[in-house]
Every structure is written in C-alpha cells, then in structure tokens.
Design brief:
8% strand; single chain; binds protoporphyrin IX containing FE; 3 domains; 6 strands; 200 residues; mainly alpha; two-stranded antiparallel sheet; 6 helices
Amino acid sequence: MECVQKTSTHVTEYIYGRCTSTGVKGGLGIPGFDSFLVGFSTDTKVTGLDTVPPSDRPPANTMLHWAFDTMVGIGTALIGLGAWLGFTWWRRHDLPRSKWFLRASALSGAAAILAMECGWIVTEVGRQPWIVYGVMRVSDAVTGAPAAFVWTMLSVLVVVYALIAYFFIMLLLKLAARWRREDATETQEPEIRVPYGPRS
Ligand code: HEM
C-alpha cells in the first residue's frame, strides 16, 4: 500500500507519487511518518517488500498506492465531517448551518462509494499473486471453462445488474417525486405519508 521496497527505520510516508521497484517517486513525502504510523516512533522498523521473494510480490503498482491514499483521505475527511456535526450538536443541539457542511454532506455519499471501490482495489491488487495467501496463486485459480461460456455468464450478469440499477434509480425518482408532491400540498406532514421523506 505504501510501496515500501526496503526494510528500514525512519521510513518516509508518501502521499500519492509514483510507485516504482525502488520506492515512491514524487508525491508529498513526510520524513519518518510511515515508521511513526507503524509504531508511534520514527525509529520503528517497517517491513518492506524485500522480505518477500520477488516472484511472490505484488506488482510495483501506482494504482494500489493511489487507491489506498484516496481511501484513507476520504475516510479521514468523513471522520472530520462527523466531528463537525458532533461538535455543533454538542454546542447548539442543531445541525451546522454552514452551506459548506451541507455541500460536504451531499458529497459524502458519493465519496464513501469511491472510498469503497478504492478499498476493493487495495485488496484485489495488493493480494497479488495470491488468491488464497500462501496456498493458491491467481494464475492457478483462473477458470478452465471455454471462452464462450465465460462471455455468456458475464453478459447475463451485466444484464441482471443493469436491470437492478434501472429499477433502483426509478424507485428513487418516484420517491423524490412523491415527496415533492406531498410537500407542495402541505395538508399533512409529508414524512407521515411518504416513506423515507426527510423530516422537517
Ligand atoms: C482512515 C480511513 C481508512 C483506513 C486507514 C482504511 C484501511 C484499509 C485497509 C488497510 C484495507 C485493506 C485490508 C486488507 O488487508 O485486506 C482496507 C480495505 C477496504 N476499505 Fe478501507 N480504510 C479507510 C477508509 C475506508 C472507507 C471510508 C471506506 C468506504 C466507505 C473503505 C472501504 C474499504 C473496502 C471496501 C475495503 C476492501 C475490503 C475487502 O475487500 O476485504 N475504507 N481499508
């Protein structure tokens, strides 16, 4: 994840940058911070990829490093957003009124999905070349089924997921439209009659 190639102490933490077989190039380097994150001291030894035989290492992969940094960056920002809400609630028993809080909240859902996809990249790329660590390699686990069968199954999955996505989006649009209609009449509290309607 951090593209640490050589086992050592005082390891620099890199925010982004390019992962190469000799370490990270470019990016924002914070000297000693990787060691600190591992053992709360810059003297902590960080185990590098040089402890793993070359044939058992994942590729020197910039995508993996970026996915990790993006996931942790978003996770940290979400914790910050939660802290903002918590602090305001503690002081005023109310939601933060800042437009920036509302903008960030609206963005947080999409950001969490992006973080989730990044997390998935981290595990799937980072596990290479193992599908079961120390037991079975990905190259030994690839199906031996004919290509026509693989393409058929993939097509079926794509169609099924496209249908699920279609009905999901239609349902959300329907809920939104119902909420708008109920809100416009103002005859009754909208959240009483509309499922998932926001409370006033
Ligand atoms: C400070 C914030 C975060 C840290 C330090 C962190 C750390 C990690 C680590 C170390 C892994 C790899 C675990 C392994 O060895 O398999 C991982 C995986 C993952 N993370 Fe994060 N993460 C953070 C935030 C987030 C957020 C905000 C999301 C989503 C909303 C997320 C979603 C995932 C997912 C889906 C995986 C893959 C799980 C799997 O397939 O086994 N992470 N994370």
